[in-house]
Amino acid sequence: MFDSNIAALVLAAGKGTRMHSPRPKVLQELLGEPMLHYVYEALEPLFGKSVRTVVGHGRDEVAARFPNWRDGFIVQERQLGTGHALMESMDELDRMGCESVFVVNGDTPLIGGAPLAGFLQSMSRDMQADVAFMTITLKDPGAFGRVIRKEGHVQAIVEAKDYSIAEHGPATGEVNAGIYLLRLAAVRELIGELTNENKSGEYYITDLVDLGVKRGRVVMGYNCGADPNLMGVNSPKELVQAEFSLRKKIVSQWLDKGVIIHAPESATIGPDVVLEPGAELYGPFELYGKTHVANGAVVQSNTWIKDSRIAAGAVVRAFSHLEQAEVGEDCVVGPYARLRPGAVLAEQAKVGNFCEVKKASIGKGSKVSHLTYLGDAVIGAGVNVGAGTITCNYDGRNKFQTTIKDGAFIGSNSALVAPVTVGENALVGAGSVITKDVPDGNLAVARGRQANIARKRGDS
Ligand code: UD1
Ligand code: CA
Questions:
Q1: Quick check: 191 and 184 in contact, CB under 8 A?
Q2: C-beta of 84 in contact with ligand 1 (< 6 A)
Q3: Do 56 and 195 sit in the same domain of this protein?
Q4: Is the pLDDT of residue 447 over 90?
Q5: Where in the sequence is the domain holding 120, given as residue range(s)?
């Protein structure tokens, strides 16, 4: 842990107007995880649970997505600016009894790299700064707050809207990253002086810089060069740019670790996915959540996989869609298979094209090869489920279970009306509608008998 004398404060109350989305901005996703997920991942190793979050717009949604962090939420009822967000947090920060607060904009998802560690280390070494913040240098300063220096010393941050060349001189390209380390004693002294007399009519946290300088406080801007990871995300374009750079970084890290990724430029791998060296994947594919792919497993192209485990030797063939599924060793899934939550395949099982499996376990070596729906089912080992088999698990109100025991054979185009059990080594004739249990070793045929009737002459 970095320093128990420092609390962290995430500013996440804003609406994110420029995203044009009903979703609160900090819940916008990169590689399947909300921006705030990345911010917390970066802060937790440094500050443990001493992380507070200013929420406002869409706060119930934010709380629902981050139940582990909601105890540290501070509500900013009206979003009157980043300086106001800090004002609203002062009581809680005082209560925590910390010396300093590390403040970060919640819309800066990629902060968790070396520059942040460098900033904190350098600040903890000197610890003399009252107001310190990170800066980046951009060719085009865009909508970022411009850093004004005189003989190298920071004087102020001037927001883009309030900036004029006549008043402030030509921009240098150095801008505020929205990441601050503030000594609370200084903040207490300065914060009452913040006003909203600017083009936006908001209280700016950035005005602490100019105020600090005027009051003789030590103010420092820590420049991190052109690091694109420190750019805030305000628009869809900036969101996908940040996602693009993160995606490239993650794919390249897995390649370095010995994962074989064909067409890596089209690979998408979420931040919490785990791939073992020797796993082989063919782009394009998307892996999200807590997906795990073992050594020797193969994932073919155009697959979408979330929160699933693919064991050694298994092959997920092209165009398959898996969510919360477990694929055992040496299984074959797809092409065009859909494994929904609770699909569990034991070793050497096979689920082929146009099959859907939901909340169902499939035993060792069993084959479900074509055009089948298995829901709420327990399938034993060595079972063959013929093409077009359906477990009728839902009566419009409740779900019921189907059990198919070891070695059973289900003929094509059969409907198994749950609750129902097909016994060991039993055989269901093709086209049957099975409504009663089939005893072990029996043949069940439940369909209209075929009648062959001679045609009269002249029938066409
Ligand atoms: C801010 C900085 C700017 C800097 C940029 C870096 C100010 C005034 N400007 O501008 O100097 O270059 O970040 O990315 O701070 N928020 C609240 N409550 C509010 C308003 C905002 O919690 O009342 C949160 C937002 O949810 C967001 C963060 O604060 O996560 C920053 O707000 P935003 O409006 O995006 O500021 P920028 O215009 O990007
Ligand atoms: Ca922003």
A1: no
A2: yes
A3: yes
A4: yes
A5: 6-230
- Name which residue sits closest to atom 26 of ligand 1, judged by CA: 14
Roughly how many angstroms between the first and final C-alpha of the chain, as a whole number?
87
Q: CA-CA distance, 25 to 57, in Å (whole number)?
A: 9
Question: Could you tell me if residue 409 is inside a domain?
Answer: yes
- Cβ–ligand 1 distance for 141 under 6 Å, the answer no
106 lines ligand 1 (CB under 6 A): yes
Is 79 inside any structural domain?
Answer: yes
Residue 236 lies in a domain: no
Mean pLDDT of the chain: 96
258 with 226, same domain: the answer is no
pLDDT 10s digits, 261-300 = 999 999 999 999 999 999 999 999 999 999 999 999 999 9
Rounded Cα distance between 228 and 115, Å, is 11
pLDDT over 90 for what percent of the chain?
94
CA-nearest of 307, 346, 305, 298 to 322 is: 305
Return the ligand number nearest the Cα of 16: 1
Nearest to 247 by CA among 138, 119, 109: 109
Q: Tell me: pLDDT of 1 over 70.
A: no
Distance from the CA of 152 to the center of ligand 2, in angstroms? 26
Please indicate whether residue 13, judged by its CB atom, sits closer than 6 Å to ligand 1. yes
Q: Is 370 a catalytic site residue?
A: yes
d(CA 181, CA 116): 11
Question: Which CATH number covers residue 192?
Answer: 3.90.550.10
Residue 372 lies in a domain: yes
Q: Is 386 in the pocket of ligand 1 (CB under 6 A)?
A: no
Atom of ligand 1 nearest to the CA of 80: 23
Closest protein CA for atom 28 of ligand 1: 105
pTM beyond 0.85, yes or no: yes
Which residue, judged by its Cα, is nearest atom 25 of ligand 1? 14
- Atom of ligand 1 at shortest range from CA of 203: 8
Mutational test site, ligand 1, from 9, 38, 105, max ligand atoms within 8 Å of CB? 105
pLDDT for the residue numbered 278: 97
Report the CATH number at residue 399. 2.160.10.10
109 lines ligand 1 (CB under 6 A): no
Residue-by-residue DSSP string for 230-266: G----SHHHHHHHHHHHHHHHHHHHHHTT-EEESGGG
State mean pLDDT over 93-114: 95
Task: Verify that 279 and 386 share a domain, yes or no.
Answer: yes
Split at pLDDT 50, 70, 90, the class of 127 is low
The total domain count for the chain is 2
